[in-house]
């Protein structure tokens, strides 16, 4: 439960009161304007290099309070949600090396695509989704949702939601892969925390480094066109830096129980979610049609950002851009973020990187340095070099701490998004069912 929920009630209460005071058309326009304003404010807080006075993920931009918020905006705890239908599966519970570091990585814990940033992104999505549902359903006659053009736009949104559930599944397991990497990074730290370094320490660190880099670099190859072969290999760059003996200690990642089909593709799923996403025109350019379009864009953007940052099955060919209306005020911050991520994705995709998560990129850089150090280690070590290596080990230890603190809550938030989408979809379907029954009785 985030702190923003207490303030979010103002938005929802405002909608509830106005529905009893003004004509539906006029009220929809005002709700839409306020909805767009809140979206713009929230996503501006996610912009790179923005001074973040509170890096804790629960603090999101305040909203102008109502008891109605509890019924609409309160997220459902993942552990208390009934399992969704069989149609959707719930998530399972250096020196010497040329390396590009994203320009946003200098901003500390709030850096774009860091764990903290992704948690804020998911909180932002949950707030936007609750407010959207309030605009769409609160105090509204169900028959309005079943009329044209909503009878076409609402099912289209629900279809995107189903596709997004698969993405939530995939990135949940991607977080598990990063946690595996973190476990072996901790072994590297424990192996090299005592000085002076010995041959035994270096051998132990080398084996753990092989596992770390195996989980960072992924080759995704299309097999016979029907299945995807996921081959986890040791450091594509400088692959000769690990001996064949070390590679024997690299685990087989195919043992992970992915809850999506073997031929499932994150790239194709994002393409499917973002296809046929067009700005409403003419009479549909205001009110509820535009509100639904905005929620579609937010859903697509958040799923795309998660896939770029977290390892997913078969991301080869992932779109570097998604359809965001740059000219719209509510979408400008989103557009800037997309351009920044796309720029980094193009660079990293060519190198076979598993993703852009800030902590993973930094672990990769430190690990590559330590691999080179281990390959050229000779005892005794010069004091200056020993201090340099110790600094890198300390940096790796701090990255492990951040991942230890953040990956579990991040995974829980992804599950929460999954269950929220399932719940909201069911609620909208129920409204449509009531509307259909009412229209049948009136015939």
Shape call: elongated
Low-confidence stretches: 15-23, 52-101, 105-109, 219-258
Q: Please tell me how large the radius of gyration is.
A: 24 Å
| Mean of residue pLDDT values | 76
| Largest sheet, strands/sense/barrel | 2 strands, antiparallel
Distance between the termini: 45 Å
- Decide which structural class fits the backbone: mainly alpha
Percent helix? 55-70%
Number of helices: 13
Strand order of the largest sheet: 1-2
Q: Write the element-wise H/E pattern from the N-terminal end onward.
A: HHHHHHHEEHHHHHH
- Write down how many β-strands occur, each being a DSSP E stretch of 2 or more residues: 2
Tell me the fraction of residues in β-strands, as a range. under 5%
What does this protein look like?
This protein has helices at 4-18, 24-44, 68-72, 115-137, 142-145, 150-192, 199-216, 244-247, 266-274, 287-309, 332-349, 358-375, 383-442, and strands at 218-222, 228-232. Residues 15-23, 52-101, 105-109 and 219-258 have low confidence and may be disordered. Helix 6 packs antiparallel against helix 7 (199-216). The longest helix has 60 residues, at 383-442. The chain is an all-alpha fold and 443 residues long. A two-stranded antiparallel sheet has the order 1-2.
């Amino acid at each position: 439960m985030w702190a923003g929920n207490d303030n979010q009630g103002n938005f929802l209460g405002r909608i509830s009161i106005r529905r009893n005071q003004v004509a539906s058309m006029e009220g929809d326009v005002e709700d839409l304007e306020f909805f767009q304003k809140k979206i713009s404010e929230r996503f501006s807080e996610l912009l790179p290099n923005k001074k973040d006075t509170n890096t804790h993920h629960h603090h999101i931009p305040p909203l102008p309070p109502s008891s109605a918020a509890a019924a609409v905006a309160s997220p459902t705890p993942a552990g208390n949600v009934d399992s969704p239908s069989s149609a959707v599966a719930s998530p399972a519970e250096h020196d010497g090396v040329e390396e590009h570091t994203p320009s946003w990585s200098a901003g500390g814990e709030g850096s774009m695509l860091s764990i903290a940033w992704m948690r804020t992104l998911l909180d932002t999505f949950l707030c936007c989704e609750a407010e959207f549902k309030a605009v769409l359903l609160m105090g509204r006659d169900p028959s309005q949702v079943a009329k044209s053009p909503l009878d076409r736009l609402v099912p289209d949104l629900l279809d995107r939601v189903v596709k997004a559930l698969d993405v939530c599944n995939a990135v949940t397991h991607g977080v598990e892969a990063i946690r595996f990497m973190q476990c072996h990074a901790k072994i590297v730290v424990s192996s090299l925390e005592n000085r002076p370094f010995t041959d035994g320490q270096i051998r132990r660190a080398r084996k753990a480094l092989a596992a770390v880099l195996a989980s960072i670099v992924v080759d995704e190859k299309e097999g016979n066109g029907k299945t995807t072969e996921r081959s986890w290999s040791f450091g594509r760059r400088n692959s000769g830096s690990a001996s064949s003996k070390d590679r024997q200690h690299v685990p087989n990642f195919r043992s992970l129980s992915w809850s999506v089909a073997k031929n499932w593709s994150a790239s194709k799923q994002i393409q499917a979610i973002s296809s046929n996403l067009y700005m409403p025109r003419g009479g549909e350019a205001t009110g509820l049609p535009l509100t639904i379009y905005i929620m579609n864009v937010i859903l697509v953007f958040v799923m795309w950002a998660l896939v770029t940052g977290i390892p997913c099955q078969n991301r080869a060919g992932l779109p570097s851009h998604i359809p965001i209306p740059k000219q719209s005020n509510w979408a400008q911050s989103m557009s800037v973020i997309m351009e920044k991520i796309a720029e980094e994705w193009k660079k990293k995709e060519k190198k076979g990187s598993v993703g852009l998560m800030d902590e993973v990129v930094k672990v990769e850089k430190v690990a590559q340095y330590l691999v080179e150090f281990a390959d050229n280690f000779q005892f005794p070590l010069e004091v200056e070099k020993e201090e340099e290596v110790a600094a890198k080990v300390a940096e790796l230890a701090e990255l492990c701490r951040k991942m230890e603190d953040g990956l579990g809550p991040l995974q829980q938030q992804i599950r929460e998004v999954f269950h929220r989408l399932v719940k909201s979809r069911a609620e909208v379907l129920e409204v449509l069912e009531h509307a259909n029954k009412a229209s049948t009785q009136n015939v």
